[in-house]
Every structure is written in C-alpha cells, then in structure tokens.
Design brief:
Number of domains: 2
Strand content: 15-25%
Number of strands: 12
Bound molecules: pyridoxal-5'-phosphate
Helix content: 25-40%
Distance between the termini: 50 Å
CATH topology of the largest domain: Aspartate Aminotransferase, domain 2
Structural class: alpha/beta
Number of helices: 10
Strand order of the largest sheet: 1-9-8-7-4-2-3
Order of helices and strands: EHEHHEHEEEHEEEHHHEEHEH
Length: about 350
C-alpha cells in the first residue's frame, strides 16, 4: 500500500486510495478477484445492472474462465466461446493509427450503457502475451477520466507490467493514473513462488462491510501462502535496497537502442519497440500462431539463450537486475540469431 499508485498524492480522496489488499497465488486469480469484487460491489451497492466489462482486443488476463472472458486474443478464447460471459470488446490502443480510435469506442460503449458497465479492464501500456503491443499512457488518462464521468471502475492488470517492468514502479504511474483495482503477480514474488495481490480502493472495500452476506467469499487453499508472502516481502526489500528502478533507468536505453539497431540493419524486421525492460520486434505480421519467432528461438538455443517467442514477435523481458554483462550477451546473441534467420 505504501508504494501503490497514488500513495504519494496528498490530494487523492481517501475513497480512491488503493489502501486494501487481497492476497492470492497467481495472476489469473488476481484478475478473477478483481472481476468479482467489481461485480459484487455494484450488485450490493445499489447498481445491480453494472455487470458488463469493457475489454481491449489483444488483451490477456489469465487462464481461468473469468479472466478468459475479459481476454481479447482469439486464439485463447474462441474455442471456449459458449462458456464465456459477455463483454464489450474495443480495439487495441496499440493498433496502427493510434490510441484515439480505441478510446472513441470506450467512450461510445460508456455512453451507450452508462449504467451497465461494471468496469474497464486493461493491461496498462503493454499488452504482453498477445505480442508485446505497446501504447501511449495518454490512453489510460483518457479512460480514467471517462470512467470517472460515468462512475465505473478502472481495473489495471499489472501482472506483467507492474513492479518496474516499464521503468515506472507501475505502468499506470507513467500516466499518473490511479485505478480502482490493481492486479499484481509474477515479479511480485521474483517469479519464484506462487503469489499475487489485488489492490482495491477504500471505497470498494467499504462496499463489503456490514452484514456477513456482504463479504467477498473468495479463497483458494493457497491464497496468501506464507512462503509466497515471505518472498514477496524480500522482493520489496530488494527493490528498495538495490534501487531496482534506478537499474532499469540505466539499462532500458540499451534495450531500446539494440532493437532499433537490429530493425535498421537486418532486413525483414518490423515494428521495433521498447518500454522499460521490454524490447520486441516482429518478423512479419503473422500473429500468435506464426512460426517466425520459433526459428529465432532455435537459433538462440544454439547460443545458449532462451528466447521464447510470441508467434512472429521476438522479445525480451529479462530480470530487472540482470547484470550488465549478461544483458550484453543476451542482446548480442539475439541479434546474431535474428541475423541468421532473417538474413542480412
Ligand atoms: C501472466 C499474466 C496473467 C496470468 O498470470 P498467471 O500467474 O500466469 O495466472 C494475467 N495477466 C497478465 C497481464 C499476465 O501477463
């Protein structure tokens, strides 16, 4: 809570503060909990029609049916179509042409159903699993204002982008935006042990007080497991004591420069992009089921590097505290592998 988005802002109303934490054990669950919290909040606080979520094309929010329902990657959701709940899909703000088109549709959906929307769920700044699709923080600012206007929730799934991945502590910090619900996992426990949290605003927490029937009945056996919690505490201490965000600020320009250089010198590489400690480039427009990235994966394996691709997208998202020499080795080996596959 002390490092949550908005924690340093004295002007933030107490109801909007991310002051409450639900502990669980994986990112899908962190999202599932956020969905249920939002839905139950509205159901028992006088707005039972707020049951639909707005979600972005290209979104990935996890593997359970709830998180799949708010997902926007056809390869992951179409087969389960009949089992998923109904959502409003809007285009990805990372699509060619800018975030404004996506935002116009968010606004249209909010205008069309001002009393039916339970929340807007986003992966802030980087849509990870669908191919490291990056978009402007301006989109988040616009969506935050639009959701406030109709009084619905903004849910930030920072399972991938949180904990410094984008260079800021949380990707929403790049936009100066405070969501109503924030999901964290992955780096929160250093990727070592199952652990996750869903941060909620004081307002949402208050909506569960009173009769015991108003409680959030949610718990897996290993929610908040003590080993995961102990590691997460240690991770928070490492971030503080080893200035992990400072390390990212120093290393991120190297990542960006490497991807730009490769795209400029290796034929066939398109859309070099980087934010913080994520760099990506595409070998074509083949999407998630394309095989280009897998040829690079094989070439990288020969060099002792593990570069699991997302279809035609080759990317890196190394540990934020990767030693400089290892980062150089990673970038150099990746460049050689891309050259071997793409030619040039
Ligand atoms: C990985 C991921 C999830 C799911 O987390 P798991 O711990 O694998 O269940 C959810 N949302 C985003 C944005 C992710 O990157």
């Amino acid at each position: 809570v002390a490092i949550a988005p908005g924690s340093e802002r004295a002007d933030l109303p107490s109801g909007e503060r991310l002051s409450r934490v639900f502990y669980s054990d994986n990112g899908s669950t962190a999202v599932e909990v956020a969905i249920k919290m939002a839905a139950q909040y509205w159901a028992q606080n006088g707005q039972p029609k707020r049951t639909r979520f707005i979600t972005l094309t290209g979104a990935f929010h996890g593997e359970t049916l709830g998180s799949t329902s708010v997902g926007g990657v056809r390869e992951f959701r179409d087969i389960f179509g009949p089992l998923l709940f109904d959502v409003v899909h809007v285009p990805s703000p990372a699509e060619e042409g800018g975030w404004e088109r996506a935002f116009a549709q968010v606004q249209a959906a909010l205008r069309e159903h001002p009393e039916d929307i339970a929340g807007v769920i986003v992966e802030p700044v980087i849509q990870g699993a669908s191919g490291m699709q990056m978009y402007s923080p301006d989109f988040l600012r616009a969506v935050r204002e639009a959701t406030r206007r109709v009084d619905t929730f903004l849910i930030a799934d920072e399972v991938f982008t949180g904990m410094g991945r984008t260079g800021a502590r949380f990707a929403v910090d790049l936009a100066g935006v405070v969501p109503d619900l924030l999901c964290l996992a992955k780096a929160l426990s250093g990727g070592l042990m199952p652990f996750a949290v869903t941060l909620a605003s004081e307002r949402i927490f208050s909506g569960f007080l009173g009769a015991s029937s108003r409680a959030l009945y949610y718990g897996h056996s290993y929610c908040g497991n003590p080993l995961g919690a102990a590691i997460a505490r240690e991770v928070l201490a490492v971030y503080r004591d080893e200035d992990v965000l400072g390390q990212v600020a120093r290393k991120a320009p190297k990542v960006k420069a490497a991807f730009e250089r490769m795209a400029a010198t290796i034929p066939g590489l398109v859309r070099p992009r980087a934010v913080g400690m994520v760099g990506a480039v595409d070998l074509g427009g083949g999407g998630y089921l394309a095989s280009g990235g897998w040829r690079v994966y094989e070439a990288a394996r020969k060099r002792g590097l593990y570069l699991r691709p997302l279809g035609d997208t080759v990317y890196i998202a190394p540990a934020l505290n990767i030693p400089d020499a290892a980062l150089e080795e990673l970038l150099g080996g990746m460049e050689e592998s891309l050259r071997e596959v793409a030619g040039g």
